[in-house]
Amino acid sequence: MLPLLQTALELGLISSLTVLALFLSYSMLNVCDLSTDGCFTLGATVGAVVAISGHPYLSIIAAMAAGVMSGFVTAFLQTKMGVDSLLAGIIMNTALYSVNIGIMGGSSLLNMNKTPTVFSKLHSVFEKTPVAETNKLIIATTAVTAVAAFLYLFLKTRIGLAIRATGNNPEMVRSSSINPATTTIVGLCVSGSFTALSGCLLAQSQKSVNIDIGSGMVTIALASLLIGSTFIRSRRMGLRIAGTIVGAFVFRLVYTIALRFNMPAYMLKLVSSVIVILAISGPYLKSRYPELARRLEKKKC
Amino acid sequence: MLKIDAISKTFNPGTVNEKKALSGLSLTVNDGDFISIIGANGAGKSTLFNAIAGTFLTDEGSIVLDGEDITLTPAHIRARNIGRLFQDPLKGTAPDMSIEENLALAAGSGGWLSRISRKEKKMLREKVAMLSMGLEDRMDSPVGLLSGGQRQALTLMMATINPPRLLLLDEHTAALDPETSDKVMALTEKIAGENHLTCLVITHNMHSALSQGNRTLMMDNGNIIFDIEGEKRHDLTVDDLLKMFRSRSGRDLDNDRMLLSE
Hints:
Order of helices and strands of chain A: HHHHEHHHHHEHHH
Oligomer: heterodimer
Number of domains of chain A: 1
CATH topology of chain A: ABC transporter involved in vitamin B12 uptake, BtuC
Structural class of chain B: alpha/beta
Helix content of chain B: 25-40%
Structural class of chain A: mainly alpha
Largest sheet of chain A: 2 strands, antiparallel
Number of strands of chain A: 2
Number of helices of chain A: 12
Radius of gyration of chain A: 20 Å
Low-confidence stretches of chain A: none
Shape of chain B: globular
Largest sheet of chain B: 6 strands, mixed
Strand order of the largest sheet of chain B: 6-7-8-3-9-10
């Protein structure tokens, strides 16, 4: 059970980076960024290609830079080109499919079995000590801590406040002499870099990347985000950020337990879809309940 | 200070819904003016404000603010010099953010990556205390929890925290109960007076249109049908105003809300 728990923790932490990205774009900026899947894969492919060329540390920076670019284009389409924000994400996703295969040199699968990655580097540093086997945990924890701390500080800056206000009341942002297009672009660039980092780390930790690595990621991350917000109902920014990480971990944990009870692995995406539906429509149905109850009452009479 | 020259705006041109909202309107506003604007529904009062604030670009004409041509300037740039309040108290604030965060964003001091300093916190608290609504002890509460009057007072503070050249008030007290409305209006006059702001105020109250400020405009069909100030305005009654409307527009003023208000 312990190794299972460790795997759940590792995967939960790595995917929580995408959840933090959605926390910024979905919860703060109020943009449902459907390019998340493609951006996640982009981070994975760019990171893999750079690592394979012999630069494991540079691969992290390269992947994040690619994520920034992806976020920039998505944001540019919706703020400056008049493309609806959902459609901009879908279009980007489609475009990124080709881009990602192109980055992998025309193949849809890359193997990193013999490639030095950030994980194998750390593993060799602690060679033959018990710490070596926790290299994934250490790196994932470091990355999540860094990203969460950055996000916490970032959302308190002037641009961070402006991003939050953009999701809340764009008109008010404009009257504060700030262009909401700018805040959307900055926000999606930052969230894109988190998503790509998440993809990069997942690919390197499993030593391979295929073109489907990011498919359904937006739903999985959304499910984690919504689970997190039911666990921690606070207005304090620090707790909300911690909640999203907890959400990602709980989601993975439930999934891992379900696998133990012989749920086939391919059910992951169905389960995450159902969670998202329940989390979003639950409050709606609850608010409709009194009306439905009265209708039923009337029918009985 | 503000010079509007023959601006026009037509919505949905070439369709059955075509509406000429402003037709060749010209207006010169002098420094320190406090102008009340009245007119029937659809006369173009809010459209005029939208044109000045840059919500849309006008089809024709030019708008010059303090010698600078702002006809083509985007709204968020104009907002540096033009403050605006709407009738809907929800429009001016971000509900999920705290009073302090809303004000800090409006104050906009420091660079993009700067945070709210202790000094700034103190300054914002003092500003909020000036509203005398007890909000200074709730600086961390989300604005969404405040009443409409409190939100409108806060919006007023946000719009004037960096005193703008021009303040546009679009019936900003109309959605409030009479008591709060008076309070917000008194605050408006106090802040406008202290900062020597030039104000344009849309109102539906004919009495206050004649009593408050130094100048009264009446709009009809996308244009100004009369503009009155000084001695002549001082002696004017609401009845005179209605007569003038009839003679200039050739019909009766049929706005219940305007006629019924006191």
